[in-house]
Amino acid sequence: xxxxxxxxxVASCTASSPDRSAPRxxxxxxxxxPAASPQATSRTGSPNVYGHTRRGAMSPALAAVPERxxxxxxxxxxxxxxxPRTFRVVAHFPVGQYPEHITPSWDLRWLYVNNTYSNSLxxxxxxxxxxxxxxxxxxxxxxxxxxxxxxxxxxxxxRYRRLDFYDPRSWRLLASIAIPAPGPxxxxxxxxxxxxxxxxxxxxxxxxxxxTSMRVTGRAHxxxxxxxxxxxPDGDAYYVANQGLGGVTIVNAxxxxxxxxxxxxAGAHGLAVSRDTKYLYVSNRLSGTISxxxxxxxxxxxxxxxxxxxxxxxxxxxxxxxWASNRFSNSVSVISTRTGRVLHLIPVGASPHxxxxxxxxxxxxVGHNGVYR
Length: 373
Description:
- The protein is mainly beta.
- The chain has one helix and 30 strands.
- The strands form eight sheets. A four-stranded antiparallel beta sheet has the order 3-2-1-28, with no helix packed on it.
- The chain starts with a helix and ends with a strand.
């Protein structure tokens, strides 16, 4: 999260009086989500949470969707669309104020631009590669997620220190869950889909929230400035990027006890799982590097010097490329996952953040800028 001074001021003024009115959505209520697939678990059922996101596991329903990289430019209030075959920007359009991430819907039908300061989601039709003309009104969408069963959308309302649960069909507000620390930012779900762990960037804590009771049920102090969160493939641990400490904290998924801290680089920020699900990529935003962590050894296997200011990450469907938005240098880097070499540098708008490469392998999206299961 890039935090302008004005945002901190807004947070202190508004956190005590959040807008809890139920927003209305222009998206037709008749749009139905498909039935949820069974959840993977670490000890029973599928042994790999990301087992359905490997190379070649693209849904047949997405065969006609052109592959594009959608880049939200926060300070420009716009989206650039890149064709990954030519590495050129093929479309550009304005959206709301301070777009932070672009999130695939749970059913992979839409993309949502998280217009944080406009309190709205711009709906993109990925089959056409442009806005659908629909706008969904929600409060402070810094980030957006979907429960693994597809029944709830979760808006991370950072300024209000809460998670807002919505019905993803009508976008009716179901509940608001207060997070007792400043800066809720990123989250991921347990292997059974019954809970989530959310980071609070400005407090050094992560919190567990029950999906069923929609209550905070646990917490762990990791220190520093925790940002992105990613569950390990076996479902046994959460990896938490910590830009204040320059590394990644590994937390037991069941007890939330700290297992280990791995130093990666200054400004450790975004996380992405490799296509073969063996590694975790970490963007070190202030050092201009990408680290590669082995899930098997829980150690840093390599660190690549890529330059720029890599922020959020996406892995290509083939697994051969890693795409990174450069938050402070107005560009997107395309990096070889075999060599760590920068293949292309593509100019985009001001302050690019949570880019989304779509479509991707997987049965459904759990949100953020493209996390699938």
